């Protein structure tokens, strides 16, 4: 897979649909792929640079979404596999990673991890870039990591991603809208909470991993206009509880208000954020 293919498949930041921000799940999956997912490219690249991802790497992406992180690893020569519970995002990943005429080096599944394992070989790298503490899935992620490490070589790298300190994440103020509006109905979950200082280390310890370094990466969120920003933020899934409780109109209104301070004179929006990653090793 060539670097040219990667450049051509990186999404643009403009709006891509005419329907409202509270769009169907399938539409929001495409909004994620075409608007929001690219914001985390610096995180992916920093981890890949540090680990020297390239030919000979057999990489498993947990929560691989629409596959941009896998695409970047494949462009470096890695053999990639991915697992995600969202079939709509996974279908977009298949479109990106398995075009006609390309060699079959990619396994993308929504089911069990064993189906994603490369034939006759163990994984050498596992990634879980979805920020720990978002979406209320910490226990599920711990279980997935435990299962995934059983398919990896001893000493393999496991990359865990998370938000940086709240004071260095402009998006935190916007995401608090989701937390506040979802609060009256805890069953839906707030979807987001401020990152704890040791979230990643605690997850590594819980899953029997050995920490082996960490880093911080600037991941600014940039949007072409307010409509793109609203669609991008809603595509994260972190506002789902708020949508259920408060309804689309109220969520959109408060989201626009929270985003307004980050809008520039030319209509674009820019929010400076810092993300954190931990590299751990299987035992």
From TrEMBL:
Respond yes or no to whether keyword Methyltransferase is given for this record.
Answer: yes
Molecular-function GO term, any one = methyltransferase activity
Listed under GO biological process in this entry are:
methylation
Among InterPro entries, the record links this protein to:
Methyltransf_25, SAM-dependent_MTases_sf
User: So which domain of life are we looking at?
Assistant: Bacteria
For the region Disordered, give the residue spans.
1-26
Which Pfam families does this UniProt record tie to the protein? Answer: Methyltransf_25
Is the GTP-binding keyword given for this protein?
no
Domain Methyltransferase positions: 60-134
For this UniProt record, give its keywords in alphabetical order, as a comma-separated list. Answer: Methyltransferase, Transferase
What is the designated name of this protein? Methyltransferase domain-containing protein
Species for this entry: Streptomyces yunnanensis
């Amino acid at each position: 897979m060539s670097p040219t293919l990667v450049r051509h498949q990186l999404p643009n930041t403009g709006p891509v649909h005419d329907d409202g921000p509270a769009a169907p799940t399938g539409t929001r999956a495409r909004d994620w792929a075409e608007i929001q997912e690219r914001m985390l490219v610096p995180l992916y690249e920093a981890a890949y640079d540090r680990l020297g991802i390239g030919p000979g790497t057999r990489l498993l992406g947990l929560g691989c979404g629409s596959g941009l992180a896998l695409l970047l690893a494949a462009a470096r020569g890695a053999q990639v596999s991915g697992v995600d519970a969202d079939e709509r995002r996974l279908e977009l990943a298949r479109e990106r990673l398995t075009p006609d005429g390309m060699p079959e080096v990619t396994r993308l599944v929504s089911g069990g991890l064993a189906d994603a394992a490369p034939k006759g070989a163990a994984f050498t790298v596992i990634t879980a870039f979805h920020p720990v503490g978002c979406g209320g899935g910490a226990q599920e992620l711990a279980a997935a990591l435990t299962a995934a490490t059983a398919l990896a070589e001893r000493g393999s790298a496991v990359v865990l991603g998370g938000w940086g300190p709240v004071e260095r994440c402009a998006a935190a103020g916007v995401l608090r809208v989701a937390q506040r509006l979802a609060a009256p109905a805890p069953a839906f979950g707030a979807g987001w909470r401020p990152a704890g200082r040791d979230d990643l280390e605690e997850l590594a310890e819980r899953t029997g991993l050995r920490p082996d370094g960490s880093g911080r990466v600037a991941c600014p969120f940039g949007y072409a206009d307010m409509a793109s920003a609203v669609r991008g933020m809603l595509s994260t899934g972190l506002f789902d509880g708020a949508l259920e409780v408060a309804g689309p109109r109220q969520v959109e209104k408060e989201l626009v208000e929270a985003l307004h301070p980050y809008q520039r004179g030319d209509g674009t929006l820019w929010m400076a954020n810092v993300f954190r990653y931990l590299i751990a090793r299987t035992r």
